[in-house]
Design brief:
The chain has 13 helices and 11 strands. The chain has helices at residues 9-17, 27-30, 37-51, 72-80, 91-97, 105-115, 132-135, 140-145, 163-172, 204-216, 237-254, 261-272, 276-301; strands at 6-7, 21-24, 55-62, 65-68, 84-86, 101-103, 119-121, 151-154, 177-180, 199-201, 223-226. The longest helix is centred in the last third of the chain and has 26 residues, at 276-301. The structure holds pseudouridine-5'-monophosphate and manganese (II) ion.
Length: 306
């Protein structure tokens, strides 16, 4: 028997000392960003956290062992190796096989919660795919957040998904969606989507207060903090619409389905936009990491379990 999961010394020390920790996912590195920018991004996200006085906990499965917090070699591996895309259901299979995998939002949130890490930064959340009424393709990110008390900072969901259906499902699953200084749900590369949300907060401290109330009320779900990219950094909406239409048609022609859909669309869009979507993707992710750092800091300041 090996250890079922390993919390790195840095993360374990931070949790014990109740200093702030932020979880980071590895699928965005392994399957969501092209090499070699993905490796730079993985290191940069960690550095943004360290500069803010927060301990990064990048999460992945390496050789069958889920790891909460990676060393430099682990970060290199998630960027350079061809890892399986691992959602929650893949964790026991990878563990038993001694195999490696890059964790999705769902699997990252699951492992973060297991370790006691409450705040998690990503790019975009998975959601309900277009045509899901026929394909049933809905990301396990949603069902996992229904049972996992982790606050996920994301730039909403990509417009390749069915945003309206995603918001409906989050409502059904009792997952609060809170806009950061907005009541318009963002659509990843763009500041806005056509959909509004009920609640917004003005500060990271307000998010931490919601987390505390959540614990007091026995609410065991996750919280989605929707953090729109600053206007001056967003993708040009006209180019966005054009590339998106092309990408959806290409996915149709290629007949991709299941877990291959999200990586296919992301890769297609980076190429078809000549890399512009990639720059926006990196900017929004940095923006989310910075906000997550503030939320984790406020959460630690509440004296609660980080
Ligand atoms: N959205 C992005 N970039 C990503 C993903 C989503 O903008 O890299 C990844 C995340 O890891 C997310 C996963 O959890 O895709 C969702 O995949 P699926 O739709 O197969 O559940
Ligand atoms: Mn899917």
């Amino acid at each position: 028997m090996t250890t079922p999961f390993i919390i790195s010394d840095a993360v374990a020390d931070a949790l014990a000392a109740r200093t702030p920790v932020v979880a980071l996912e590895s699928t965005i590195i392994s399957h969501g960003l092209p090499r070699p920018r993905n490796h730079e991004a993985a290191k940069e996200f960690e550095q943004i956290l360290r500069d803010a006085g927060v301990t990064p906990a990048t999460i992945a499965v390496l050789d069958g062992v889920p790891r909460i917090g990676l060393d430099d070699e682990g970060v290199r591996r998630i960027a350079e190796e061809d890892l399986a895309k691992a959602s929650v259901r893949d964790l026991p299979v990878l563990a038993a096989a001694g195999a490696s995998g890059a964790t999705t939002v769902a699997a990252t949130a699951h492992l973060a919660a297991l370790a006691g890490v409450r705040v998690f930064a990503t790019g975009g959340l998975g959601g309900v795919h277009r045509g899901a009424s026929g394909t049933f393709d809905e990301s396990a990110d949603l069902s996992t957040l229904a049972v996992t008390p982790v606050t996920v900072v994301s730039a909403g969901v990509k417009s390749v998904l069915d945003i309206a259906a995603t918001l409906e499902r989050l409502e059904t699953l009792s997952v609060p969606v809170v806009g950061y200084r907005t009541t318009v749900f963002p659509s990843f590369w763009l500041r806005e989507s056509a959909f509004t949300i009920d609640w917004s907060v003005e500060s990271a401290a307000q998010v931490a207060a919601i987390m505390r109330s959540q614990d007091e009320l026995g609410h065991g779900q996750g919280i989605v903090v929707a953090n729109p990219i600053p206007l001056e950094l967003q993708w040009d909406p006209a180019e966005h619409d054009r590339v998106l239409t092309e990408a959806l048609a290409a996915a149709d022609r290629a007949g991709v389905h299941g877990k291959a859909v999200t990586p296919f669309l992301l890769g297609y869009i980076v190429n078809a936009s000549n890399g512009r979507s990639l720059e926006v993707n990196l900017d929004l992710a940095r923006n989310n990491v910075r906000l997550a750092a503030e939320i984790a800091t406020e959460w630690a300041a509440l004296g609660a379990r980080v």
